[in-house]
Structure formats: structure tokens, C-alpha cells
Amino acid sequence: MSLIMAARIENETDLAGMRSAGKKAATVLEMIEPHVQPGVTTDDLDRICHDYIVNELQCIPAPLNYGGGGGQDPFPKSICTSVNHVVCHGIPTPSKKLKNGDVLNIDITVIDNGYHGDTSKMFFVGEPSVLAKRLSKVTQECMYRGIEAVRPGARLGDIGHAIQSHAEAQRFSVVREFCGHGIAKVFHDDPQILHYGRPGTGQVLEEGMCFTIEPMINAGKRNIKILPDQWTAVTKDHKLSAQWEHTLMVTADGSEIFTLREEEQL
Ligand code: MF3
Ligand code: CO
Ligand code: CO
After folding, report:
1. Which pairing describes strands 103-112 and 60-61: parallel, antiparallel, or unpaired?
2. What pLDDT score does 43 carry?
3. Burial level of 41, CB count in 10 A (0-12/13-18/19+)?
4. CB of 63 closer than 6 A to ligand 1?
5. How confident is the model over 155-168, as a mean pLDDT?
6. How does strand 210-213 pair with strand 246-251?
7. Ligand 1 contacts CB of residue 67 (under 6 A)
8. Those residues with Cβ within 8 angstroms of residue 166's Cβ, 6 or more apart along the chain or in another chain
């Protein structure tokens, strides 16, 4: 028995449950893509996703009323929409109208028959800047490089190092305050998956472990601050930030990504 607890697949029921939840979460990102247009508000995107998750997928949007306690209010919406310099946990609102050149992350977590699927990607509104495109592309590459490091016997520091070294080689920076997480029947479980680190350090990965890899990469400095709404994380220097996320499992020879979309050919 391993001494460090972690979310893991225990049997075929768990595996089928995580595959279904991951697929459904991915479907929401595919469904919302054509709706990401100039003039649409982030609240519109939240309502469309909420209705789809509840009515079409028969799932629960995990962010809605998540967290809270210890002086923090629970998250009030069903998805996170993080526009431009927002790092993560942006709250959808009718006052945030998307305009040409905006870039945003939409982060979807569904609960499907008790299992969680958690995934996010970057969207462009009209034509983004050269920098925004490069930051988004490099951040997606960081996520894939982290995933490539996953196999039994590898260590958590190997994942972090793969991500950090690629981001910093491009003179971008890795956000330290948020990390990937174990996930299955619990939304945010052990272990913490840091997006920076040293190779050969940290917990050893074992077949069956389930977690997310979700690097947040900044165009400027890594520092962030939390807005008075207690959720929205923004870059301190107000430069752009990007994020991509998948939910996956450690398999005998690498990993299985539960939240893969049709557009992804790995
Ligand atoms: N989906 C986010 C993650 O990747 C967490 C969102 S929690 C919320 O872990 F409350 F902010 F929605
Ligand atoms: Co996550
Ligand atoms: Co997420």
C-alpha cells in the first residue's frame, strides 16, 4: 500500500466512470466554441454551458456553489471564464462582453454519476495578437510535455520540470499559486501536481493514479493577485496569461487522457 494518498482508479467501474465524465467535459468545450464571438458576454457562455451540462449531458456543473467557507463565498457560476490577464477562476458576468482580439480560457468541470471530468482550453475572439497566439501555443505545448512525462515510475518533479523548462525557454513564467490535482470521485484531491520542479524529485507515479495537468503560464512575471471577489486571479503586471487542462490516468505504458477532444491528434 502506498503511504501517500492519491485519487486512483480501483476497478472497471471507476475506469468507465472517469472515461464518461472526461468525454462529457470535453464535449462542452467543443459545443461552446462557435459561441465564442465578439459581443457575447461571459455570462452568456456560462448559461449556454450550464444548460448543456444539466439538460443534454445530465451532469452537475462542479464549480457552481463550490468552495466557500473560511470567509470566502462559494463560486457563483457553472464555468470559469478567464479573459486576457485573468489567470484562472474568472467569474462569468453580464458586464464582460467579449471583443475582437480577446483571448480567454474556458474551464469546464462536470460531475457525471459521481465522477469528475475537468478540462480547459484557450479560445480566440476574432484575430488575437502575435504574442497571445504564441503564449497560448506554448502553454498547450507545456501541458502536452507534462503529459508526456507521465508513466509509472516517473516522479511529480519530472512533470513540473517538463512544463517549467519549456515555458522559461520561451521567456514566459509559470504561476506557482495553483496546481493540478488528483481527481476522481473528489474534485480536488491529492496529489498536488506542481507545474514547476526538479527532475527525479517528488512522489513516484503509479498505474491507476488520476490527476489533472493544467499549467498557467504568464507572458510577463509569474506574480498574481486575487481580486476582491475572492476568486478571480489576475497577473500583477496585467500582462497576458494562458492555461490548458486535461484529466488523465497513469497507465502501464504512459497515460490515458480522459478529456481528449476530436480536434486533438496525439
Ligand atoms: N476547474 C478548476 C480546476 O481546474 C477549478 C474551478 S473551482 C471554481 O481545478 F470554484 F473556481 F470553479
Ligand atoms: Co483542475
Ligand atoms: Co479546471
Report:
1. antiparallel
2. 99
3. middle
4. yes
5. 98
6. antiparallel
7. yes
8. 138, 141, 142, 145
